[in-house]
């Protein structure tokens, strides 16, 4: 039954595009995804509550569960290959991509560290640079000839981070004083450190040095798409639909 619900690239169906995100064949695969979900959701929710963005979180979570499974499945068809995809890791990475925006809104609301429109992209591009470096390991193992292209992605992410970082520096008064104040706040420091830890730990798990696993290959392409869309979707929506978010 589970085999009939996976998304087959050579014979795609809408039903399989939705159900494949909830199919797991190995206990370890399921536990990893559930574990990441259990870590991410409470942190995201608390960040949104402390920022007064509960409605944004609810809309984002609903959209993620309803829209992203089929979207991510069909985006896999952009790379022609005879294979299948299954598992919730792509959806989990959508939630991970929401972290840079959620923590930026939290810092702006509680400590006046922002603005969100600049600080959130800075965190996103910084994490994207880290992901690019992690991906470089697996790319070199699989195909060393694409080193130049991957190195270009790393450089672009670094330059983007520097650009947005300079904007943050120019637009934020007494940035270091505000950051120190945030670090001294009881309870808030723990939440901030946990968020930063997740920003590093989740990519390390999602983009290992070797994507080979017993049952096949980790879908790094879908992991990257999920992370990128998980940031871009709410970031754009909050500016275009302020009443909804």
Helices and strands: which structural class?
A: mainly alpha
Strand order of the largest sheet: 1-2
Low-confidence stretches: none
Summed over residues and divided by their number, the pLDDT gives a mean of 82
What does the oligomeric state look like here? Answer: single chain
Coarse shape: globular
Q: Give the helix level as a range of percent.
A: over 70%
Order of helices and strands: EHHHHEHHHHHEEH
Instruction: Let me know the number of strands.
Output: 4
Classify the beta-strand content into a percent band. Answer: under 5%
For the record, give the distance between the C-alpha atoms at the N and C termini, rounded to a whole number.
39 Å
Largest sheet: 2 strands, antiparallel
Radius of gyration: 19 Å
What's the tally of helices?
Answer: 10
Question: Please, could you describe this protein's structure?
Answer:
By secondary structure, the protein is mostly helical. Helix content is 72%, strand content 3%. A two-stranded antiparallel ribbon has the order 1-2. Strands 3-4 form a two-stranded antiparallel ribbon. Helix 2 packs antiparallel against helix 9 (188-206). The longest helix is centred in the middle third of the chain and has 27 residues, at 116-142.
Short description:
This protein has 245 residues and is mainly alpha-helical.
Salient structural properties:
two-stranded antiparallel sheet; 4 strands; single chain
Topology:
Blueprint: E1 7-8, H1 14-19, H2 27-50, H3 54-66, H4 68-75, E2 84-85, H5 89-111, H6 116-142, H7 147-171, H8 175-184, H9 188-206, E3 212-213, E4 216-217, H10 220-240
Antiparallel strand pairs: 1-2, 3-4
């Amino acid at each position: 039954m589970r085999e009939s619900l996976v998304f087959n690239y050579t014979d795609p169906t809408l039903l399989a595009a939705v159900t494949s995100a909830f199919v797991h064949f190995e206990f370890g695969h399921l536990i990893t995804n559930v574990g990441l979900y259990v870590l991410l959701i409470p942190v995201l929710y608390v960040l949104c509550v402390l920022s007064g963005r509960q409605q944004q979180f609810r809309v984002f979570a609903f959209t993620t569960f309803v829209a992203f499974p089929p979207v991510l499945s069909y985006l896999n068809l952009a790379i022609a290959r005879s294979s299948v995809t299954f598992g919730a890791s792509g959806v989990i990475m959508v939630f991970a991509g929401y972290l840079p925006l959620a923590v930026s809104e939290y810092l702006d609301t509680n400590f006046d560290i922002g603005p969100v429109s600049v600080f959130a992209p800075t965190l996103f591009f910084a994490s994207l640079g880290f992901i690019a470096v992690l991906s470089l390991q697996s790319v070199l193992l699989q195909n060393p000839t694409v080193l130049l292209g991957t190195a270009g992605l790393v450089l672009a992410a670094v330059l983007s981070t520097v650009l947005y970082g300079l904007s943050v520096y120019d637009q934020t008064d007494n940035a270091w004083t505000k950051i120190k104040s945030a670090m001294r706040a009881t309870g808030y420091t723990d939440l901030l450190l946990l968020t930063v830890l997740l920003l590093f730990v989740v990519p390390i798990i999602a983009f290992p040095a070797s994507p080979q696993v017993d049952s096949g290959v980790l879908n790094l392409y879908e992991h990257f798409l999920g992370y990128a869309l998980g940031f871009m979707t709410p970031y754009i929506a909050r500016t275009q639909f302020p009443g909804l978010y």
